[in-house]
Structures are given as C-alpha cells and as structure tokens.
Automatic annotation (TrEMBL):
It is found in: Lysosome membrane. The lineage of its organism: Eukaryota, Metazoa, Chordata, Craniata, Vertebrata. It comes from Coregonus suidteri. It catalyses: pyridoxine(out) + n H(+)(out) = pyridoxine(in) + n H(+)(in). Mediates H(+)-dependent pyridoxine transport. This is Solute carrier family 49 member 4. Its main location: membrane. It is a multi-pass membrane protein.
Length: 468
C-alpha cells in the first residue's frame, strides 16, 4: 500500500457530469491577477519570519557583550525556531479544515506578538533575556504554516505551468530573510573590539560606553523588525483570501483525502518516507549549520561582518538558483528526480570542499577568503535551491493528499533534525568541525536515497490527461 499510486477514484474531479455516459465534466478554470498580491503578502511574511528567526546568529559576538549571552544562549535562540514546530499537527489540521487564511492569520499574530516582546526595552537584563527568548519562540510557532504552505498556495492560485515557480518563491522567502539577517545585523550592529578573539575573551576590553552603544543598535534592529511585521499583519487582516472564486486547474478542484486518511497514507508510504528523509536530513543540518556560521568561521579568523557576507551570499545564491530551477522544472515536467540528483551531487562536493578547507592544518589545502566564500556559497546554492523541487516531488508522489499536510510533515522532519543538532550544540559548542562533517554526510546520505527513489507524477497525470 505504501508504494502504490493513487486510485482512479481519488483522482476523480469534484465536478462530475450528471450524465453517466460522460464520466468527467470539464472543470472551468481561471487564473486571477490577484494571485500575485496573495503570493507577495505570503512571501513578505515568510521573509520576516526568516529574518526574525536568524536575528542573533550573525551578531552573536555583539549580543554576548550587550546582554551577557553565552554561546549556548545563541544556540538556544536559534533552537526556538525548530521548537516552534512541536504543535505542527494542530497547524496542519487548521490549514486543512479552515483554509490558508485562518492559519496564516494565526501565524502572523504569533509573529507580531513575538516581535513586540523582543523589543520591550526593560532595564532588568534577566527579564529582557526572558522576553527575547519568548519572542523567538512565538516567531518559531509561525514556522509550520510559513514553511509548509507554499505548495498549497501555488496549487490553489496558480496554473500548472506556474506552480513550481510560485512554490519556489513562497518556500524560499524565509531563507532569503535569514540571508538578509546576515547583512542587516552586522551592518547596523557594531562588533565589539577584537571580534576574532571575542569568543574566548568576551567583554575583556569593551567599555561601558561601547556596550551601551551596541545595545542601542540592537534595539534599533528589533524596533524595525517589529514595525515591518506589524504592517504585514495588518495587510493580511485586511486582505488574504483562502482561495480564488474559480480553481486555476483540474488538480486544484479535485477531491482530496481527509486529514486522518492523509496522515495514515503518508506514514505508510515507504517512497514518501524515503524522499522525505532525503529532504529533511540535509536541509535540517544546513539550517542549524547556517544559524551558527559565525561561530564556525571564527577559528578561521573570519570577522563577524565577513561571516555575515558569506552567509548572505550562500543563502541568496540558493534562492535565486532555486527560482531559476523551478522555472526550468515548469517548462520540462517530469524531470524532478534528475534535477535533485544533480543538486545533491553538487552539494556533496561543495560541502566536502568546505570541510577540508576548514581543516587546513591537516589537509594542507589553501584556506583563503576566496575558497571559504566559494565553497560555502556553493553549499547554500545546491541545498537551498532544492527545497521547492523537493516540495513539488512530494506533492506528485502522494497526491491526492493535501499539499499543506504533506509539506507540513516534511518541514516538521527537517526542523526536528535542526532541533536535535542545535540541542546537542548547546552542550558541545567549543569545537565545531564536527558540524561540517555532519553537513557533508547529510548531503551524501540524501544523494543515495534519491538515486534509489522511484518517482511518480499523479498530479501531473490529472492535469495532462483530464480535459480542462
């Protein structure tokens, strides 16, 4: 049962001709110009969720001076993102039963309250730390909807020849937000003196004036993020419909499995579990790895600003390349597995190069800014750009399971991997070369699973062979 494709009954459209001689009535589909507004609102909210999640990693040296954070505190602040996926079943149920608008409104509400808590300027440092941690947790609770609803939005609003592109934009914007945090933070928040050695000797030669200045700049960033999130929340309240008046395709109008049957089908489908692990392991590891990239690059004497630029271009390259590959996948349908094989092969080679470059004392490979930039950026390009391609393959593999439920399961698995990694990091953060090896191994593991995966395209079958 697990490896079986969907039945003809499950593929049957919702609109059935009353004349029994004709088994299927043409589904009148239409695409609306407002779909771009819906995609823009969702993408901007995803962008802010990503930038708020990754606020502290790029400025960890400054935060350690300003708020007396330890390395474990920085790891926990990043960890709240994966922890927010704990009630993922509730969010998937809400998305399936109440629609995308209700689930997105709740997520946006969590984001605005979380951003507000982080920006409360209380003088008591211990209370301030609790507010910051609480705000990060609330922002993490928005993750299940933000990171898994992209394919649902694309199927509901976009035509088949635009679905992969819309999925790429919606699912990669949170990554783009995390990328921009690598720039916004280091550029607006000054690094303390002797940034390279601050991990060992923090606040040794920093004056009280400098610490106050750093706190003021961090507060400015928190205020700005809260303001943008509040505006987006108001926009979603004013206008964000769950679906258009008419479906854009046959697949968008077809009957779907119930919530309980969907979960059972996913957990019993070996092919789905196989490709879900191929997605969750490398993307989960790279999320935790990028969240502490500044700490990883510090032993290589890379400054906070330079580490920020490396992280930015790593994720930015993945976002741009991901949208380009999704557009390519829209033009040549049925080639998702081949695209993923090429991406994971490239990710395996790039992560191996980066890992060996960081071990220059043992490998004697040249460790220059150029090699660190290139290898790290290639890792981000290959892994991050695979996300929308994975999402499209998930939907095709288990159709007619609803898109929100399918992607909710896989994003939960990815964040479970990230959470386990960061939880371990809170106890073992003195030497991080093992994290680079985890990244390399995860890419190789994913490549092997994809090679043995048997692809199918049930949703594509419906759109191509059912008259529209």
């Amino acid at each position: 049962m697990g490896a079986a494709s969907s039945t003809e009954g499950e593929r049957e459209p919702l609109l059935v001709h009353p004349n029994r001689e004709t088994s299927i009535q043409p589904v009148y589909s239409q695409v609306y110009g407002r779909r771009w507004l819906v995609l823009t609102l969702f993408s901007l909210l995803a962008f802010m969720q990503g930038i708020v999640w990754n606020t502290w990693g790029p400025i960890q040296n400054s935060a350690m001076h300003a708020y007396d954070f330890a390395k474990s505190d920085i790891a926990v602040l990043v960890l709240w993102g994966p922890v927010g996926f704990a009630p993922w079943l509730l969010f998937m149920w809400l998305m399936d039963k109440k629609g995308l608008r209700a689930s997105l409104l709740l997520s946006a509400f969590f984001m605005v309250i979380g951003a507000a808590l982080r920006s409360v300027p209380v003088p008591e440092q211990q209370l301030r730390r609790w507010l910051i941690h609480g705000g990060q947790l609330l922002n993490g609770l928005a993750g299940p909807t933000i990171m898994s609803a992209g394919p649902l939005l694309s199927t509901t609003w976009f035509a088949p020849d635009q679905r992969a592109t819309a999925t790429a934009v919606a699912s990669l914007m949170s990554y783009l937000g995390a990328a921009c945090s690598f720039i916004v933070g280091p550029l607006l928040v000054p690094a303390p003196n002797d940034t390279t050695h601050a991990m060992v000797n923090r606040a040794v030669d920093s004056t009280e004036i400098q610490i106050n200045h750093i706190r003021d700049r961090i507060q400015l960033v928190l205020y700005a993020e809260f303001g943008v999130v509040a505006v987006l929340f108001a926009a979603v309240v004013l206008y964000f419909p769950s679906r258009p008046p008419m479906p854009p395709s046959v697949a968008a109008a077809s009957q779907r499995l119930s919530y309980r049957n969907s979960i059972c089908k996913l957990l019993s489908n070996f092919r789905f579990l196989m490709i879900a692990l191929a997605y969750a392991v490398p993307t989960g590891v790279v999320a935790g790895w990028s969240g502490v990239l500044d700490m990883i690059l510090t032993p290589a004497r890379v400054s906070q600003v330079d580490a920020g630029w490396i992280g930015f271009w790593s994720i930015m390259g993945g976002c741009v390349f991901g949208v380009a590959m999704a557009r390519f996948a829209d033009s040549i349908r049925g080639m998702l597995k081949l695209i993923l094989i090429l991406m994971m092969a490239g990710a395996s080679l790039a992560s191996t190069w980066f890992t060996l470059t960081c071990l220059t004392r043992l490998t004697h490979l040249p460790s220059t800014a150029a090699t660190l930039y290139t290898s790290c950026i290639l890792v981000g390009i290959f892994i991050n750009s695979s996300v929308p391609i994975f999402f499209e393959l998930f939907i095709e593999t288990v159709y007619p399971v609803p898109e929100g439920i399918t992607c909710g399961v896989v994003t939960f698995l990815g964040n479970l991997v990230t959470g386990c990694l960061l939880f371990f990091l809170t106890f073992y953060s003195t030497e991080l070369s093992w994290l680079n090896w985890c990244l390399t191994g995860s890419c190789a593991f994913s490549l092997v699973l994809i090679l043995f995966f048997r692809e199918s395209y049930d949703r594509l079958y419906l759109d191509v062979f059912v008259s529209v």
